[in-house]
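Please, structure for the following, as tokens.
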Amino acid sequence: MWTFIRPLCIWLCLWAVPLAARGNDAQPPSFAPPVLAQAGGAAFDGTWDGRGTLVSVGGRGTDCGGPSIGHRLTVNNGQLTIEYSPPNGIRFAGPVAADGRFDLYSGPSHFAGQFAGGTMTATFRNRSCERNWRFRRQAAG
């Protein structure tokens, strides 16, 4: 019986008694998580140009392109967008965290990395290949 009474006593002491003391208009406390700032990744807004170096090839390696290729991405209001491989339907879009990290998927393809100041490093992976990237922010204008 103590297993039933003890939780009831705790509930009464922590919940019901304080509510009764505050009157009829009392609302239960909110246990919602805090709302995080949405604009954290906006510090990285801009156009970024980069070069990717092929690290490994597997499966249909012909989908990977040459050993070193260039690309451009944009960050707008903290949202990264890159048309990675339109012929293969690979497009990444998603949020950049306030600390500059991102982790995005397009089907089985994965693009993850981190912005730091005026540079960004990332890794692209899918079944066919892996490529390491280094991007630099372009001057506004």
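The longest helix spans residues 2-22. The helical segments are 2-22.
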